[in-house]
Amino acid sequence: MRLTGLVAEGYRSLKSIRLEFGQVGLFVGENGVGKSNLYRALQLIKAAGQGSLAYEIAREGGMQSALWSGGRRLAQPARVILGAELENDETAAKFSYQVEIGLPPPVSAGFAFEPQVKEEKLSVEAGRRPVEMMTRKGPAAFARDGDGRRVEYPVRLLNSETALAMLGASGRYPEAGDLRAAVAGWRFYHGFRTDRDSPARKPSLAITSTMLDEDGGNLAAVFATLAHIRQDTVDLDRAVADALGAELDVPEPGEAATFGLKLPEFPQRLFRPEELSDGQMRFLALAGALMSYRLPGLIALNEPEASLHPRMLPALADMIAKAAERTQLWVVTHSQELAALITDRTGAQALAMVRIDGATAIEGLGITGRLSDED
Predict the structure, then answer these.
(1) In this predicted model, what pLDDT tens digit does every residue of 356-375 receive, in sequence order?
(2) What are the structural domains, with CATH classification, of the chain?
(3) Whole-angstrom Cα distance, residue 169 to residue 50?
């Protein structure tokens, strides 16, 4: 199921933004314009599907931190509205999901500043008009079951629970289940730890690993899967050689999977992960994310150029373009050079992000989420 649009209103610097989404979403802007907030808004859609939306917002400072801090109309409630549109490529069915989050009322079952899910709605368009498949207001939720009947969900939902997660996991409401599965499969790579205790530097359990964990903890197993299960590391080897001038060595795993680098100036020496530089480790982790045996439905990268030497950027852009042949990519960067390289290789238009009166905006983006012909 392919992401086709995103809506974010009242979230941090995102006063109101709506955009369409293609195979590669490329967002570029200076520090402080709100690029990470847009990335985070998409990540919160995944959290709604997983049932961790309230936790994720509380972890970033709670509703006081999440709410748009600019002016509001007097009668306008303080709400964060997040929405996503997806399309099933096999059936052409179009899914539209929206969740509204606000503060609990003075007398409620929730804590004072925790996020409270106010409303949710899921509609699906498979014919001439969209059909409402799930609605939630307060603790009550209704959905269409496998026979298409609109029924009430038998459990009253808590303020912190999302209907998408609860109903989608129940197995009784197919459309909610399909959407939940789709967004739960997205991967977000917001930098990789490269300190001495980084999970990516550690050996992995010798288990076939088809895609990289978000913390990079199974990196060695991902490389071993490519080398010894798929038996194809041509693209990976080329990327490592182009970016690092080195050869990736992945021995046959025993109880654990490991890897190392062979550098041309030290042909008899194998450099283990704990010896590699931060930039080397970060590039290898990105390689694991973008070149794994299987790719998730969507990969989101937030400032992937961080800690990388400029000479590594062409190889990174090559990996992004190669991955875009198999999945959707969402790339947020402040590097104009990387954005130009990705545009050259994929044809994706870089969307320039700016601040206007304190709000994050995208240059040339109209109210419908489309760029004008001139832009």
Answers:
(1) 999 999 998 765 555 544 44
(2) 2-186+352-362 (no CATH), 188-348 (3.40.50.300)
(3) 9
